[in-house]
Amino acid sequence: MATMWRRAMLYLGLGPDDEYDDYEYDAVEEPPARAAPRYVQEPPAQEPPMGAVRPIPREPEPEPPVAMRPRGPVVRPIVAEPSPKPHALSPESFNEAQEVADKFMAGVPVIMNLQGAERELSRRLVDFASGLCYGLRGQMERVTNQVYLLTPSEAHVSDEDRRRLEERTS
Q1: Hey, which of 14, 16, 40, 44 would disulfide with 9, CB 3.0 to 4.6 Å?
Q2: What residue ranges define each of the domains in the chain, with the CATH number in brackets?
């Protein structure tokens, strides 16, 4: 049995180098050579073999009616919808933050007046609003002391509205 393991190790090249050189390669039997089979040449088949790409004849597309044919480039004016008026609120609890978020996500600018709110509530609402604006790619700006304007990315607040807002809160 040991000889069998030794011969296997030598065959795999895992034995000592001096014994590996003396290994007899003819000890391993090779299968007898066979004669190559003869093939009869057949005429080529009429259909392409399976898996070959065959073109499918297309039916001509019908001509569109005259009214639907393109006449050339069409220029249409872009009608800018006026931005909705800002929604103003003075939250008295953090539960009103949801109303701020709902209006903001609907595309309505929000004026958040925190002048009458407690300091801790004011800080939490400002943190919430700034995260909301950042997450939805909007803007948050301080209009006056403790009054913030939250503008969604698709809305625009005119300069006149900003001026009126500053006058109202001052």
Answers
A1: 14
A2: 87-169 (3.30.110.150)
